[in-house]
Amino acid sequence: MREISGRQIAVSVLVSCEKGAWCDEVLSRALQQERPSRLEAALATQLCYGVQQNRMRLDAHLAAFSKRPLDSLDPSVRAILRTAAYQMLFLDRIPVWSAVDEAVKLTKQLSRRPADPGFVNGVLRGLQRAMPLQPPTDKDPIQQLSLQYSHPRWLTETFVSLLGLQEAEQLLAADNGQPPVCAMVNPIKTDFPSLQSRLEKAGITLTPHPWCPGCGMLTGAGSLEQLDLFQEGAFWVQDPAARMAVTALGLQPGQTVLDACAAPGGKSFAAAADMHNEGEILSCDIHPKKLQKIQAGADRMGMDIIHPTLQNGSKPRADWVDRFDAVLVDAPCSGLGVIRKKPDIRYKDPAPLEDLPKVQRGILENCSTYVRPGGVLVYATCTVLPRENDAVVDGFLADHPQFALESFDLPGLGEQPGRITFWPHRHGTDGFYTARMRRER
């Protein structure tokens, strides 16, 4: 039986993405189900993320050689053209002729229209004759950036308004880069030198992060879930900016902590590590399956102070009022800080984002009642939009004088004046926001 190819997996995933699915989730399921070779899995991953990161740019080039509008094509044919064009324009190790040939073969396999293989061949041969191609151009500088980096105009305009044209381009380029895989050492099970040595014996490099303690960047790891060290709970995967939200809490062993929006669990794991697995952490989510994953992670890492709890952050719990030493609210958000890892976020409809600050404020309002007098409240998001960050915190503080911003130290980054926004192009992390508040009475 012939092994399914990385190209075929990528086309299937990209078709699902056009129907509204998330690329990372569908790709993960497809790789688990199909179990392709390591090389084919790597190719599928490269194609899925590469196409999503450069989709607008690819479409602009393909449209120049297509006699049919791209949006009129069968979704599988459109995906085949995009994956082939990405290989031709961005991947030096794949010969152009091979990308074209495999695309035509795949079209014969997946399309019911007899004319489609010839059409795909014609479009890609036209693209091949025109190579090397420069990025699409436009007299409007914002539209130019939008096309070159495949960010919709509304999003490009937003970033330019925040950063200016030059720095916005740096952010757009970072969004299309490959983020490092960062492993957080579980101090309950091991230490950094020991983990580094054991990974090296497995052919995996763990490079110390430049400013995040206990964090290393993995190279050559492949599927992390298949690593014995991962299964043993020696480390978990987390972006350093997200890890810093827990560091900002300033936790101590023996405290009682609420992680109000805990899935997928990384911040609860970081909290347990900071507390030396002494105290109590309630890790909340509204989805039972996500709570099961948090429990499985906690069990794997020997963190028995973590207690997954089914609870909506916006729904009051009278028995939790004034109960916790520290409360972390990692609120639902637009996710525009994690475009590197979820490239398809950029293509989602922005209209539903308008109501997010109201939702975030409601969760923050409710969870603030759970902080005991003298306790700490941290509000965090994985977005860089001020309307979801500073505006939410400022509005909350204006109505709750018992809370005040409080400065905090971050290793390698120094003292922060109560809040910080991480940027992919400045910090090499996800875009992330953290604000620390103290309940003074």
Outline the fold blueprint:
Blueprint (H helix, E strand, L loop, with lengths): L5 H13 L4 H12 L3 H16 L1 H9 L11 H16 L5 H15 L5 H15 L10 H9 L3 H11 L1 H11 L5 E5 L6 H10 L3 E4 L6 E5 L8 H4 L3 E3 L2 H8 L8 E4 L6 H9 L5 E6 L2 H13 L5 E5 L13 E7 L25 H13 L2 E11 L8 H10 L3 E3 L2 E3 L3 E3 L2 E4 L1 H4 L4 E8 L2
Parallel strand pairs: 5-6, 5-8, 6-7, 8-9
Antiparallel strand pairs: 1-3, 1-4, 2-3, 9-14, 10-14, 11-12, 13-14
Helix pairs in contact: 1-2, 1-3, 1-5, 2-3, 3-5, 4-5, 5-6, 5-7, 6-7, 8-9, 8-10, 9-10, 13-14, 16-17
Would you give an account of this structure?
By secondary structure, the protein is α/β, with parallel strands linked by helices. It has 4 domains: 125 residues, NusB-like (N-utilizing Substance Protein B Homolog, Chain A, Orthogonal Bundle); 35 residues, no CATH class; 52 residues, Alpha-Beta Plaits; 200 residues, Vaccinia Virus protein VP39 (Rossmann fold). It is built from 18 helices and 14 strands. Helix 1 runs antiparallel to helix 2 and helix 6 packs antiparallel against helix 7.
What key phrases describe this protein's structure?
eight-stranded mixed β-sheet; N-utilizing Substance Protein B Homolog, Chain A; 441 residues; 4 domains; alpha/beta; Alpha-Beta Plaits
